Amino acid sequence: MLRPAFNVFVQSSKLLVSRNNPAKFIESALKNVSVRTLTSHTHHHNQHANHFLPEATIRSAASKDDVRDFMAVWPDIVRDLNDYAKKYEPHDAPKWLTKALQYNVPNGKKNRGLMVVQAFKLLARDGELTEENIRLSQCLGWCIEMLQAVFIMNDDIMDGSETRRGHKCWYKVDNVGFGAINDAMMIENGIFYLLNKYFSDKDYFHHVLELFHDVTFITTLGQLQDIKTTSLDLSLFTMERYKSIVANKTAYYSFYLPVALAMRMTGYADPEVYRQTKTILLEIGNFFQVQDDFIDCFGDPAITGKVGTDIQDGKCSWLAVVALQRCTNEQKELMKECYGKNDPEKIERVKELYEDLLLPHTYEIYEEESYKIINTHIQQISRGLPHKLFFKILEKIYRRNA
To answer: Per-residue pLDDT tens for 20-51?
Structure first.
């Protein structure tokens, strides 16, 4: 059985962490940590060849060959959807759908889609690692990338964001506006056209459909939690609530969905295998989102491709939750006054408060200790999945800055 991450964190690190106050760290431990600064000098070697792109859109954890082969499938995906649209509206719709797809889907790191392919290759049994099956795994990968595009297109509207992946958010593009909502719906429904076209004759088809439907619904629940928690009532900012938002909004579709799809393709059926897999991947997803929250505040937009907005949006972020656990009464009043306000001076005051509370140091400790704990959990998996799969996923995101 896998022990809950928080309990292991307490027992193994001796950092006095609890569910109610996970931010109390032994101050002497801070002396052993050198804080990474997220500045542009860390990616200067990429800037010469890709001076117009943020590092977040350049870097991928997969090999160049995997990325190349994955990208080679994309034109066929676009053509399929273009032809599908032409059946019903042959004039404007196909061109517009193609434009929306090209702008929103293929320009990120594509780690979610590539995770399907890499997981399939690791899990495939004798006779399963065929050219056809690899292509099917790439198609599933692109379906996840399309789902990711749907989520971020809508999320950018809800958050009022300006940039994504180094470019204007889709709804900010000329002649798009809130029509982006309909564009996202077209892309989402395109996913199910592709699944029906390529997988309806497969034994695992209904499992794949169920995964996409379930995870999409779970993610929208997470988005709802995120929206409803965004308020001036900072008493809602608890670690329990934060972990629930993260699991639903991020971890299921970013980590569990890619691996579960590969497992279905390769015939895994034992519910306990899926339970253990989900436990590990949701932990990794929480780890990933805490990194995202830190990068949103302290990252370099030249690397990340976007300007963080969690503070002015009043998000229930890891930084805000831990800050409120550490704050004096006076500092809490400052948070109430400044958090969730779109005022550059107030945003800066919140960042300064985070610095005063040593949150960059706390984050550094959290990242190292969580990495160790997840490694331990991976080693405890006992139902047949190769540990290498989970180690590869964890290594992709460890100590990232974008």
So the answer is: 344 443 333 333 333 333 333 333 333 333 33
Residues 6+ apart with CB under 8 A from 345: none
Rounded Cα gap, residues 391 and 388, in angstroms: 5
pTM value?
A: 0.83
Query: Hey, what CATH class is 59-397 in?
Result: mainly alpha
Domain extents in the chain: 59-397
Residues in Cβ contact with 357 at an 8 Å cutoff, skipping those fewer than 6 apart: 322, 323, 326, 327, 331
Sign of CA dihedral 40, 253, 176, 83: positive
Residues recorded for the chain: 402
pLDDT digits (tens, 9 = 90+) for 119-129: 999 999 989 99
Q: Going by C-beta distance under 8 Å and a sequence separation of 6 or more, which residues neighbour residue 95? A: none
State the first-to-last Cα distance of the chain, in angstroms, to the nearest integer.
Answer: 33
Q: What pLDDT, in 10s, does the model give residues 281-338?
A: 999 999 999 999 999 999 888 887 778 889 999 999 999 999 999 999 999 999 999 9
CB atoms near residue 166 (< 10 Å): 20
Three-state SS for 19?
Answer: coil
Percent of the chain with pLDDT over 70: 84
Residue 339 neighbours by CB under 8 Å, 6+ apart: 232, 234, 311, 314, 320, 346, 350
